[in-house]
Amino acid sequence: MVEVGPIADKVTSYFYALLFVRHPELRSLFPAAMDTQRDRLLKALLTAAEHIDNTPVLVEYLQNLGRGHRKYGTRAEHYPAVGECLIGALSRYASGIWDPETEAAWVRAYTTMSQVMIDAAATAELRAPAWWHAEIVAHDLRTADVAVLTVRPDQPYPFLAGQYTSLETAWWPRVWRHYSFASAPRSDGLLTFHVKAVPAGWVSNSLVHRARPGDVVRLGPPGGSMTVDHTRDTGLLCLGGGTGIAPIKAMVEDIAERGTRRPVEVFYGARTDHDLYDIDNLLRLQQIHPWLAVRAFVDQQAHLQLPDAIRGYGPWIEYDAYLSGPPGMIRNGITALRDVGIPAHRIRHDSVEELVVVGY
Question: Binning pLDDT at 50, 70 and 90, where does residue 49 land?
């Protein structure tokens, strides 16, 4: 991976060219525009390579991928074709170090990793559909580029507060994007998402500026492990940046519904007051629940990162920490939380690809 890293675009482009020439029947499983798909393949390979000796993290990551790939129509018989073309691309662009031993190692690794994904998909097949249709029943534009969407799935959708799902719109078939649930499971079965329109974001811009009540989207299965351990009574330190506040709010609701009184400290960060689009709802929850403290931080000049704001409070050593927001905030957050004494195993987030960058 070090050898091919500098020419990753060429490697992934060649891989997909091989795949679609040798197995043209697989082209329909992929979106029309492949830019993001190429990036995701490289991230998946980097993550697998970095965590090849960390079995629990790698297996959980691969199981999530395997379950998630069902929504594309991926079947067990597709994996050998992908492996054949992947090795073909790697051998071409890492020719300086490629030898029979390297190829054998990749064959073993890919076979093992793909089997984890296949098994996870087979298990999920027995429990849930590959996707759900969901009708948008409410669309609340909170700011010029943030909307809160409420949807009604066509059949029960089980999930845990703190998790996320992937979502596809009719305007961009086979283009899926991840969004966290912004509320705990509800008795009426409705689901809520916070969506920020980002530059050149096909799905996010469609959901914020084009979607209306009555439109139907597709949901993949739930994923993620940033959930509350209700067997513990320790406090929760929650950092939410931007729309990263969505799963934090869901976890607060989850704790409230269970009637526990463990302390929960929420730090909500944004660039402007206007971007604190959900602060009123959080403050209402704070008024109802004395165990909840909500602190908002606005930093228009980006001088004070949200994770640094926690240093003036605490102590946090006995708390479990949760991070949700942009990748940079998560990276800084891991460092800040460790600095204030929270051990790594009590820091939760769902950005597994970023673990490669921070070496966590």
Answer: confident
